[in-house]
Amino acid sequence: MYKPRLKPWEYPASDCLTLCKGCHSKEHGLVEPDSGWTLVSIDDLGGLDGICERKGCGTEIRYEHITYHPNWGYKSVGSTCVEHLTREDQFLSQEVLKVFKNISGFINTSVWENGVTKNGKHFTYTTYSHHQIRIYGKGTYFSYQIALKRKGERWFDYGEFIQAKNKTLDQVKELGFIVLKGLITNDETEKELLRNIYSRIR
Prior knowledge:
The chain is α+β, with helices and mostly antiparallel strands. Helices cover 30% and strands 29% of the residues. It has four helices and eleven strands; from the N terminus they run H-E-E-E-E-E-H-E-E-E-E-E-E-H-H. It has helices at 21-27, 87-109, 169-184, 188-201; strands at residues 38-44, 50-51, 60-61, 63-69, 73-77, 113-116, 122-128, 131-138, 141-149, 156-158, 162-165. The strands form three sheets. Strands 6, 7, 8, 9, 10 and 11 form a six-stranded antiparallel beta sheet that branches. Strands 1-4-5 form a three-stranded antiparallel beta sheet, with helices on one face. Strand 9 (141-149) and strand 10 form a beta hairpin. Helix 3 (169-184) packs antiparallel against helix 4. It is elongated, with a radius of gyration of 24 Å. The chain starts with 20 loop residues before the first helix and ends with a helix. The model has no long low-confidence stretch (mean pLDDT 84).
């Protein structure tokens, strides 16, 4: 705290805080702070297409963390530069990354087969944890359906058709998995993260 016209020895002790040179520089905004950042979003760029903007880093990154500091504005950083984030946001960052990796793992390892409905409608489908994702259409005009298999029963409860226009097949698979995972998970944090991810990419 600074008070006009006071000499250093004239301050009450409660107004003074001893800082090292580095922390003093941070207080004056000369060095990037390592706290007070808020995580705005995390985006999967699909490859090492981003650059970490943390001073002195410059590493190519796939998972782009958009952070905000009231005195420094917005900054895009990688997953290893999480010291920009608060502890709460560090936890959130780790959880979001875990969800993204699960989605990516599903897209790259799931086995899809072809099927035909009783009405002769063709679809592509896969099974995940006894449940099913069905995708109808071709080109960029797709719709998908989630089928939840009830425990101990042999039939599926098919949900409504969800339109997914102007999406690639992989993007529709991704949306279908996010919806299915959100329906079956019991983890409220994961459910909320999936809901947010879905709303951004939908």
